[in-house]
Design a protein that fits this description.
The protein has 324 residues and is of the alpha/beta class. 32% of the residues lie in helices and 16% in strands. It contains eleven helices and 13 strands. The chain has a seven-stranded parallel sheet with strand order 1-2-3-4-5-6-7. Strands 8-13 form a two-stranded antiparallel ribbon. It has a two-stranded antiparallel ribbon with strand order 9-12. The two termini are 23 Å apart. The mean pLDDT is 97.
Length: 324
């Protein structure tokens, strides 16, 4: 944690903290403990604030949601059981969550969704589409006042779903899903550091994601889903899903927006739309980016190991000159 929190805190005033630790953040006590651990690693000159979330399970009660809200959580995360890293304790029966979702509405908490079904009969490239039709559409219909973030959308269908259900539903988009399609998993051989969940999709999907991100529409905003796994956990049988982008996230987004003539929309995507959806004030600080190439290290220290960042050994064409 001490190795990677500064990468985020150097640029971002806030970050949504995912709760899928090996021991998931399933109650208010664990929320407080995790926040305290993060705060100890924030650089002294940073104004960074971690925004905490609660891990949803079918054992969670409305009273526990109330307690988590009192502990300062801003959202609860729905992982379908087995969908991604450390999601084994996730939700198995989504309709059974309805009383918990009603408690979230009362507390003005956002529902964050990993949008994939886990049915082994569904192709991995179709799991987002099936989740939208079979799970999320009925959920938002049952809870029209619940604000939902479809996180790290990966398909054209995801873009269409967000647009069809805005302003109730918003969508976040990662740097890797804006920059890569599924070919990147196999270029020159298997590329485990490009493996994430939801998995990279078709080029037609990537183009629709770029169009949505650069559109200026309030329903789309930054969400890196940055996932630091030690190199040994990536380069092994059953390697972890996740791309580490916190070292250069804002700069990578700038590349995408520049390439599509939309730098004037980057501020809304990165700094305005998210706070508006969460009901938070806009950060008062500023970040200055300059068009200047810099080399990305092959790896960063990560405890007793290393973490391989997105675009390791390559270059990024934008640099953060100042964050104040």
């Amino acid at each position: 944690m001490a190795a990677v929190v500064p990468h985020t805190a150097r640029v971002f005033g806030r970050a949504i903290i995912m709760p899928n630790l090996p021991e998931p953040v399933i109650d208010a006590a664990r929320v407080r403990n995790y926040r305290e651990r993060i705060e100890k690693t924030i650089p002294a000159d940073s104004g960074f604030t971690p925004l905490m979330t609660l891990y949803l399970t079918n054992a969670l009660t409305p009273d526990q949601v109330d307690e988590a809200a009192d502990a300062g959580v801003v959202a609860c995360k729905l992982y379908p059981a087995g969908a991604t890293t450390n999601s084994a304790l996730g939700v198995q029966d989504v309709p059974a969550l309805d009383p918990v979702l009603e408690a979230m509405q009362r507390n003005d908490l956002r529902l964050l969704v990993h949008g994939e079904v886990v049915d082994p009969g569904v192709d991995i490239f179709d799991r987002e589409d099936r989740f939208l039709s079979d799970v999320l559409a009925p959920l938002v219909a049952r809870h029209p006042d619940l604000k939902v973030v479809l996180e790290h959308i990966t398909t054209a269908r995801g873009v269409d779903f967000v647009r069809a259900h805005a302003p109730q539903v918003a969508g976040t988009i990662t740097p890797q899903h804006l920059m890569l399609n599924r070919n990147a998993l196999f270029e020159g051989g298997l590329r485990p550091h490009h493996y994430c969940l939801p998995v990279l999709k078709r080029e037609t999907d990537r183009r629709r994601l770029v169009e949505a991100a650069t559109s200026g529409e309030a329903a789309f905003f930054l969400g890196t889903d940055s996932a630091p796994h030690p190199v040994g956990a990536k380069l092994c049988d059953g390697g972890c899903a996740g791309v580490y982008s916190a070292h250069a996230a804002l700069e990578l987004y700038a590349e995408v927006f520049e390439a599509h003539g939309a730098l004037d929309q980057l501020e809304a995507f990165a700094s305005l739309n998210g706070p508006a959806f969460y009901g938070l004030p806009v950060n008062r600080g500023t970040v200055t980016l300059v068009r200047e190439s810099w080399p990305v290290p092959d790896a960063y220290p990560f405890g007793d190991s290393t973490v391989v960042p997105f675009r390791a050994g390559g270059t990024v064409s934008w640099r953060v000159a100042e964050a104040a």
